[in-house]
Amino acid sequence: MTRPLPERRRPLRLFWMQSGGCGGCTLSLIGAEGPDLLATFEAANIEVLWHPSLSEQSGRAVIDIMERIIAGEETLDILCLEGSVMRGPNGTGRFHMMAGTDRPVMDWISDLAAKAGHVVAVGSCAAYGGITAAGANEVEACGLSYDGQKEGGLLGADFRSQSGMPVINVAGCPIHPGWLTETLHMIAAGRFGASEIDEWERPLSYTMHLVHHGCARNEFYEFKASAEKLCDLGCMMENLGCKGTQARADCNMRAWNGSGSCLDGGYPCINCTAPGFEEPGHAFTLTPKISGIPVGLPTDMPKAWFVALASLSKAATPPRLKENAVADHLTRPPADRQKKTR
Amino acid sequence: MTRLVVGPFNRVEGDLEVKLDIADGRVKTARVNSPLYRGFERILVGKPLADALVYAPRICGICSVSQSVAAAKALAEAQSVVMPPNGELAVDLVHATENVADHLTHFYLFFMPDFARDVYRDEPWHAVAHERFAALKGTASQDILPARAQFMHLMGILAGKWPHTLSIQPGGSTRAVSSGEIARLAAILSSFRRFLEWTLFGDSLERIASLSSAAELEAWASEKRPESSDFRLFLSLSEKLGLNRIGPSSGKFMSFGAYGVGGRPLFARGVFDGAIEALDSLAIAEDVSHAWYKASEGAMPPLAGETQPDVERADAYSWCKAPRLGGRSGRWRGNWSTSIR
Fold it and tell me: Are both A122 and A162 inside the same structural domain?
């Protein structure tokens, strides 16, 4: 006797838009590994209605899909936006018109978002404005539900998609592929609810952590053995602007491109998952200090304790760490006292 | 007169629109429009010099390293900093990795899927092309994505992360490489070579690199069936569709020179416009006469030009500035870094 084949659930349909950004989140995403992006979509039962880099349709065929969604003739389960919403000049949106339509992209985004089961901001531009909003932001770039740290953005703080969820902000510049693929998989599996996001509506799956967690420079941090210039191996918090102890992401627990991270690459964390990271108020690779003490200390630790512990640990720094902290190659290996030298 | 408006275009980003005005069966005007303005030139104004290395790569997520290298070299020149040879080598490796990955991505993900389109469904080769190259569904994308991702492990080691590394500095790379890592880099490269030789080319890279004429290429291609490798299949489709005859470029080429240590580029610097000439980068200017920017007195060199958006400007139709070399236009092929949207 043959059993009937189990019925396969309807795939979730995803539509991807790009606006004021660089496309870097897509380029990062196609580097997904273990498994690759297409296997991930298949595993999550996601069907790509259109993605500007990955799909066959061009021109009129794309506009048709958007019009069918807006008319309610096509189900849109997940709307992804990559890049900032371009509102300028003077709120007209003319800094980014949708090709072939004579209509600002921001209007298309609003119409599509109103129909979407879930709305996902891919990258810090789509979430908060990001790099495109840097400087005087003459282009009036903003995120879907934020304008920098201010609630609002294009859709407003009260926006809820058909699922009842606010815009989900997979922030980062760019995103780590895993941050998005996990989020999409959880959405598709019906397991992404309000308890899965943090205070900036970022998935807690990666913002539960600090960039500091798993940083290979932790021993230097413990003993305040600091790097003095980029490419030194010591901790980059004291002098080089590193925000790893405040930045919310798991970059040192989840490898980038196989094995890396910013800190592993010899440069500081610039907190790219945070709203407003593009305007830190100081040079990115210099730590602002008040009377020699870095301003941006770990947020949930009393300052006096930090300073006391730091001066204690600085006094106890082993020579090995002192030396390695200001070298670009490890020069002094740890020594094992069990080994008797003759 | 009828107007034909085409857009958005896949496959890099949709931000391209073509407007054609047609009369008596002929195209009267053709306007190619980039409909997005971000204003990077203006973002950079007033920023600390070194911060350019954070902003510049974010101009483009595809060629972010090229932007980083251009910014680092400009800063080095301004500050009279010289990269040490090992720094040049490390930066070159990161740059070349991106360049190679971009060619691969372009070929497999952005270009070849068009051969799988329905318009070709009556062609005898369509079934093969569709099975191999259909967007998202073809077997090629199953092969290329893991191979590309593993190749980009070079970036994890040499640049920390990609896109948007901050490892490339005026004084070289922030990431020293250990001896164990050199072995890993070699193994990753070797593994990628297997993919190129088995899947893309169907022959050794040395053999491919030794082909020195169109005739040699054709002879090589005919040694095996088109389906035996993706490159042979591409050559076969190109021949059947006569791609070598449609849409040829103007035959003008420009190279800024790339890679190489101590001011001796591996890829030479120069201009080819019938004959090889030296490239004078000071002769590069940007024409904004049909772009939504405040009018300038003729084409301006990037250093002197201003980026002042003017969305009401009459006769303007694009956010792209048009680069000129010594007043000459044409479809220059090369590393343009002046046409920032």
Answer: yes
